[in-house]
Amino acid sequence: MAIKVLIIGSGPAGYTAAIYAARAGLQPVLFTGGQPGGQLTTTNDVENFPGYPDGINGPQMMIDLQKQAERFGTQIRYGLVTGVAVDEYPFQVTIDEKDQVIAETIIVATGATAKYLGLPSEEKFANRGVSACAVCDGYFYRGKEVAVVGAGDSAAEESTYLSKLCTKVHLIVRRGEMRASRIMQQRVLNTPNIQVHWHSETDEILGDDQGVTGVRIRNTKTGEASILAIQGFFLAIGHKPNTELFKGKLNMDEAGYLQVQAGTTRTNIEGIFAVGDVADKVYRQAITAAGSGCMGALDAEKFLAAKEAQAVHA
Question: Which of 217, 235, 253 is the last residue of a domain?
């Protein structure tokens, strides 16, 4: 028997899609993927999601969303979707490279992964001073000194955002110029409490039991090292959407984000919908992911209703 709504991914987008689809009686099945709960399971404190006046621990929030989805009848299955055949309808989906299921609709909520420098100290101080989202975590560093690494629009945006909260922002740029748009570069250069460190790369993030205390940077021309005393280190070197599964099957932009029809979650394949960060390279927030998850479920419900109507009149 075909699954009416199959959801791939278990972040805010996937669980919200499951809640809406389950309440509509569509008996959704959600496959958690390799990181059950998504990126928020690596976040200690979430303070900007509505409904939690005192904030909430990221992993606990995902447990709550899972329980809510299950309460309405969502089947949560721990497994990795490793193949999707889109040429025939309904869709044949492979789980863990061996099991096969059939789905009438698919909601892709596989998210995106922040890019890291690959330093052991990044992992060591994750959630203790190292972050890949200034909008999410910048509030915790108000009145403190921080560093941002990156040279594109994201780095410029994160730096100017943090400059409104922090006493000083050190922007670490590997080359002698930024890749950001001219207007964003001007904003950075015209902000008094942003100091740009040109020709610099991050050598090591420093800290103690309390968290980050500094960063050692190295001049790429002279090799000279220096230490910046900071309490927060923000990565702004991009995100990688988790879309390898759909290469050559679903339309993507040049960065690999799934493309959807404006104002909807519909992809180029009828019956397949994309929600959350896998299709959003602009906002990348838990609340926007959840909102698009709702849209995906409603779009899937509408698609199934139209299919049913066609069958009746056939």
Answer: 235
